[in-house]
């Protein structure tokens, strides 16, 4: 089904979230799993004020979620779909050949992180 104008506008707004270098770096760092804000700062080199601002933007867009543990706040990608989107988007933008099968699975509606089944496992 072709994109409607409204759907295209929504997708463009979503893409804008990843079109900011610090946000893309943060999302990439979180692909490795949850990180405390201090760990994110050290891993990305993004200073605390900018990091907090960009995490807030990603949080409001439901791309990342915070979790408080004692005095530290840990951030992670919100769910499996966000992990999948981030991996596919970053892989495609890097022209990473490993990202192509993932993008193909998404395009076919197989939006799952599970590896496709082989013939011996019962897959086609």
Automatic annotation (TrEMBL):
Record keywords, A-Z: DNA-binding, Transcription, Transcription regulation
Database matches in Gene3D superfamilies: Winged helix-like DNA-binding domain superfamily/Winged helix DNA-binding domain
SUPFAM superfamilies: Winged helix' DNA-binding domain
One Gene Ontology molecular-function label: DNA binding
The keyword Transcription regulation belongs to this UniProt entry's keyword annotation: yes
Keyword DNA-binding included in the entry's annotation: yes
Source organism superkingdom: Bacteria
Domain HTH arsR-type: 3-97
One protein family per Pfam: HTH_5
NCBIfam families: HTH_metalloreg
Protein's name in the database: Transcriptional regulator ArsR
Source organism: Acetobacter orientalis
């Amino acid at each position: 089904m072709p994109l409607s104008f409204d759907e295209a506008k929504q997708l463009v707004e979503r893409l804008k979230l990843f079109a900011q270098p610090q946000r893309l770096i943060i999302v990439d760092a979180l692909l490795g799993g949850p990180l405390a804000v201090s760990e994110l700062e050290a891993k990305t080199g993004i200073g605390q004020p900018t990091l907090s601002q960009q995490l807030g933007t990603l949080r409001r867009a439901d791309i990342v979620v915070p979790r408080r543990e004692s005095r530290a706040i840990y951030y992670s990608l919100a769910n499996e779909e966000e992990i999948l989107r981030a991996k596919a988007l970053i892989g495609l933008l890097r022209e990473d050949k490993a990202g192509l099968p993932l993008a193909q699975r998404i395009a076919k509606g197989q939006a799952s992180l599970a590896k496709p089944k082989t013939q011996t496992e019962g897959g086609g």
